[in-house]
Automatic annotation (TrEMBL):
<dbReference type="GO" id="GO:0016740">
    <property type="term" value="F:transferase activity"/>
</dbReference>
<dbReference type="GO" id="GO:0006281">
    <property type="term" value="P:DNA repair"/>
</dbReference>
<comment type="similarity">
    <text>Belongs to the DNA polymerase type-Y family.</text>
</comment>
<dbReference type="Pfam" id="PF00817">
    <property type="entry name" value="IMS"/>
</dbReference>
<dbReference type="InterPro" id="IPR050356">
    <property type="entry name" value="SulA_CellDiv_inhibitor"/>
</dbReference>
<dbReference type="InterPro" id="IPR043128">
    <property type="entry name" value="Rev_trsase/Diguanyl_cyclase"/>
</dbReference>
<protein>
    <submittedName>
        <fullName>Nucleotidyltransferase</fullName>
    </submittedName>
</protein>
<dbReference type="InterPro" id="IPR043502">
    <property type="entry name" value="DNA/RNA_pol_sf"/>
</dbReference>
<keyword id="KW-0227">DNA damage</keyword>
<dbReference type="InterPro" id="IPR001126">
    <property type="entry name" value="UmuC"/>
</dbReference>
<feature type="domain" description="UmuC">
    <location>
        <begin position="18"/>
        <end position="151"/>
    </location>
</feature>
<keyword id="KW-0808">Transferase</keyword>
Amino acid sequence: MKKRFASLWFRHLKTDWMTVGQPQLKEIPFVLAISTHGKLIANACNALAEQEGVYPGLAIADAKAFLPSLKVVNERSELTEKLLHNIAHWCIRYTPLVAIDLPEGIILDISGCAHLWGGEESYLQHIVSRFKQHGYDVCVGIADTIGTAWAIARFGNGNAIVEGDKQFDAILDLPPQALRLEATVLQRLQSLGLKTIGSFARMPRTALRRRFGKDLVLRLDQAIGDEDEFIVSIKPIFPYEERLPCLEPIRTANGIELALQQLLNNICKRLTGEGKGVREAVLQCHRVDGKIEQISIGTNRATAHQQHLFQLFALKIPQIEPALGIELFILEIPKVEEADPVQENLWSHRIGLDNPVVTELLDRLKSRDPACEISRYLPAAHYWPERSMKIASSAQEVPTVDWQIDRPRPTRLLSTPEPIMVTAPIPDYPPLFFRYKGEVHTVKKADGPERIEREWWIDKGEHRDYYAVEDEKGRRFWLYRSGHYDDRSPNQWFLHGFFA
């Protein structure tokens, strides 16, 4: 695909921003001032101030001398970077590749994007009109190279489009400043009477390099396309991303659902063809007012099941506030994994983790309540009960050891054993009674003791003698005594679990 770039130049970026926030400034000449070496200097001027002869770099005292009505506003630190950063994110609706071009510009890689607006002419007019609606004066240049687009936007005749492979002719009549050269190089060119790019563009490169340095040759070659130039986008580009611009702003939940269905259909077809599935997905909704609404989902296993992904998103669509309308939908897939197709056994009704119905149910539960934590446990190679299991990292993780089934183990194991008061007849006998949370339980049946030694290579302490007991109501508990019997230490007994 042939590269095409658009350069946006905001001639009055900071003063336009001030005017948007304070409309009364529209009719007043004003400047944004900074302090330099103990005196105030005009750093940015609005159009009315420029018409009266005020320009950036002029001392405020001098400006006030011939324009007493000039309003002076102290400039905020890092204002330019913050404004361009916000504008660049807003411009993502026009292309996924957007870069900041300090001090007053934005660069767009519009390759393959303009046709969505009916061509480059409509694309350019749409950008200009939208910024004008928001109160910003912008000049746009479109060309095959960043250098030519930049030059046309700043030194051309208003908003312009350079046809493919015509960038050399387009810059010949422009001043050398259009090549983004250093001040020392520009002074040298001016002293020699080289007032246009055409006056030196056809000179031998060796002569230009020797006389003016390699920077001039580099910038000239970048502008005409003999040297590559790239932009660094403010936002990472995901390999799996779908965009859907809207002819009319979408304001209803039904419209959002239809847009989401189309995006998922496109992305799932692509993922299925590549044998991959979604693990994380983000839906961004770019509103007419410039704000972005966003919802995201995650899955327990890679899936390209369109309806399942739609159901996960559908649970969160009420969180989206369309306001005046959504003009662009972007579906990003930050995380994908290999997705082996599961062959369903038609004559088997067994449900397991390999069955997509189970994992899809877990996904829906998690999406419905983000605070919901569903864990899968696997056996771990430890004697100590608290360490005999671990949380699986995924639904596909395979256990390395078997569950211990030769001895009774409770259905519910407390993470921290709770102390209990116990009445036992003689050492190594199961208790007759025990008190737990204020209730006295009479032991009718008991099994034990089962001695479990502490794992001395991990920590130190007493061994445990476990008993499985049943009270008068048929409730079954897992109790243990810590260490050997000691009538001087009554708090040796603990409740560690419950049987079903």
